[in-house]
Amino acid sequence: MDGSQAGGVRTDVPDEMIGRFAARAAGYDRSGEIGFDNIDELREAGLLSLALPRAKGGAEIGLREVVRIVSKIAGGDPSTALILAMQYLQSGAIARSPVWADGVKDEVFTSIVRDGALINALRVEPDLGTPARGGIPATRIKHTDGVWRLNGRKIFSTGSSALKWGVVWAATDEEQPRVGQVLVPLDLPGVRIEKSWHQLGMRATGSDTFVFENVAVPERYLVSLVPYGAASPEPAILATWHAVVVAALYDAVARSGRDWLVSFLKTRVPSALGRPLSTLPRFHTVLGETDGLLLANEALIERALSREEAGFPGGVEAGQIRRLVTDNAIAAVSLAVAVTGNPGLSQDNPLERHYRNVLCGRIHTPQADVVLEGAGRAALEG
After folding, report:
1. Farthest-apart Cα atoms in the chain, separation
2. What percent of the chain has pLDDT over 90?
3. Distance between CA 170 and CA 142 in Å, rounded?
4. CATH number, domain at 176?
5. In terms of C-beta density within 10 A (0-12 exposed, 13-18 middle, 19 or more buried), how is residue 177 classed?
6. CATH code, 256
């Protein structure tokens, strides 16, 4: 594979597209709205279906290709890149699932290929938080008068109003509850969105709240429910892919910050100095430190990709790589902010946006305390 074609399906991302995304990014950041223009371009370019099986119209791309594409998109608009990343992670996981019925898979895949439909998992709740920390979701699905009805709320739902499908983490209203995934067409009666995403960064992800009120869900869409406490039947690959792809996305944000800093130093000529800031050793040191952090990120991401391709489970190490890459990315952008002063924090310049965006890298699962606890426990258990 040459990075531009897989199984006869084009996978290249035109530089011109990234330029348009970058030109729109500030406006979408300020409005807090999803970049639907960007989504439309991804749809028209056939980029939304690449994680699907070749037999279903996709390119069956692996983790390395997902990272390449998401990283490049993030160089233009990381919010759009995160929506695309979730598309690849969820559709790729469904393709590999041993429990989703073939007919339901085909419904989802056909809508993605034919209509460019978007899908994402809806998991986090106001009281529960992220399911990664345990607990039974308050979102419940109950069988009443021959119909399964869904009730609950899901916060931080990346892509919200752009999504066609939601993979909802829910529990049955039974004496012994079953917990797992319920596929929900998000245009069903009883589904609504509350605007709730007012975060510091990644503002154009539209990560608003879904509210489900007596939503009638066809039984075939109860795709993977198991007794509470039982192991999930879904492949563990999703957790590893999620950790690595998210790491690569925020690394791309840091690289955008680094590139802006280089341009600023070359063009900024203080009158008292009479020459560009780029001539001063102080800034050479800062750029050296920045590039060192990004070099470490490149090595960490490559390690994750190589081990995944060799068949090693990611597990604890993938979480550590996500933590380290994210911390390095934040440190790199922080250096640029520290040495540029007011220009670096001005909304007239993109570095301020890169800084707010890269800080959001820490909110993704698995979070640092969980990663470190797991790594320490694994070390002691040998």
Report:
1. 80
2. 88
3. 10
4. 2.40.110.10
5. middle
6. 1.20.140.10
